[in-house]
Fold this sequence. Notes:
It is found in: Membrane. This is LAFE_0G13190g1_1. One of its GO terms (cellular component) is Golgi apparatus. Keywords: Glycosyltransferase, Signal-anchor, Transferase, Transmembrane. InterPro entries: Glyco_trans_15 (IPR002685), Nucleotide-diphossugar_trans (IPR029044). By secondary structure, this protein is an alpha/beta fold. The protein contains 19 helices and twelve strands. The strands form three sheets. The protein has a seven-stranded mixed beta sheet. Strand 11 and strand 12 (about 380-385) form a beta hairpin. Bound molecules: guanosine-5'-diphosphate and magnesium ion (MG).
Amino acid sequence: MAIRVSKRILRLLVLVVGSLVFFSLTFSNNESVAAINDYVSAQASNMAQYVGLQPEVVSSKAAKEEEKQRMEAEKAQEEGKVDEVLDDEAKKLLSYADDASHSTVGPKLANATFVTLVRNHDLHAMLESIKNVEERFNSKFHYPWVFLNNEEFTKEFKDTISAAVSGEAEFGLIPEEHWSYPEWIDQKKAAEARKKLEEDGVIYGGLESYRHMCRFESGFFWRHPLMEKYEWYWRVEPDIKLHCDVDYDVFKWMEDNDKVYGFTISIHEYKVTIETLWDTTLEFLKEYPQYENKDNMKDFISDDGGKTYNLCHFWSNFEVANMNFWRSDAYRKYFDYLDKNGGFFYERWGDAPVHSIAAALFLPRDKIHYFPDIGYYHPPYNNCPLDKAIFEKGKCTCDQENDFTFQGYSCGNKYFEVNNLKKPEGWDQFQ
Ligand SMILES: Nc1nc2c(ncn2[C@@H]2O[C@H](COP(=O)(O)OP(=O)(O)O)[C@@H](O)[C@H]2O)c(=O)[nH]1
Ligand SMILES: [Mg+2]
């Protein structure tokens, strides 16, 4: 009996002492008190908004703070310093709204141009391309067009082309340093390399001009004085076709959807033309690991986690892209690194694999866009919409049997797979 009474007293004692310790700790700790006060104040404020009361009625501390901020803002506005009190997000929103190119009212254009590298003797092939692009797209928008050449354009070329485009046409001569051998290139070695590739029957293997062209399209077109004022471009070559109407502003779509690089056809490269391109890229990445984007699309260009290149690339005869990417530190350094290596001349590195490897490594994958709706032909391949609704909406005239996207030599299937894209219905009948 004596033991049972003392146990009960003991329990009571523990309870009383425990409570005292808890309360003394809680209320002697200033931080805890402040935290509780803040929490209560925030809850009061939320509750007040919920029931329609002014927060200051409930929490005088929050009210004072808000009042102080409001007075500061008003004062700054009076002094014309409104920018300084806006936060970054608000600034972005305002500049977006102010930018006329985002307006849905009126035909406001993006800061964009078509761009074509072309020779005088390609005039008629060029007129065919222009006719297609104008009929299917540009007659609705009148974007300007920049023509570039390593020789002076003739008067006939300029007059005929100017009459054919619906926007302004500008004609530029390429500066010699953008279309010649850099001093570190061993020209004898380059000539031997051309001879070898020609003997091996590689397409354009023996052509010196083709190499200057690929180097120019990789590293210089976006630096040409006529291109400097633009942000976006659509590359067009002679002898291409557009198979479908494009009724929306493709440039603005890219801009509004936060894209950087758009393509229509992807394909495997001839390995003999880029034997050392990937190893050179890996050396570059070792030196500049910071440029590899953590959300990149490396799985499009490599099947073994980056050990080797699978030869997939976006076919660069069509590109709708933002030149700020080529103008970025990452790409400039990459191009310079490749250029120093000499592979544009000692092999036959194409601008397509160079652009594609850069886009796949340095950009987050969601910045790259495949246009399923732009029916496109560059000899000998087609991007012909397989989706019935897209085909009909665009009044396309191509034969879906000739769509290249899912055929063996294309990389379209790979692109759809690595990006978890839904393939158009019946795609497997067009393999
Ligand atoms: N001005 C100029 N343009 C060229 C030259 N070689 C090729 N091009 C252009 O470069 C682009 C690619 O050349 P192309 O012959 O179509 O090569 P492919 O598409 O790889 O078969 C096209 O826009 C051509 O007009 C050249 O020597 N001078
Ligand atoms: Mg071509």
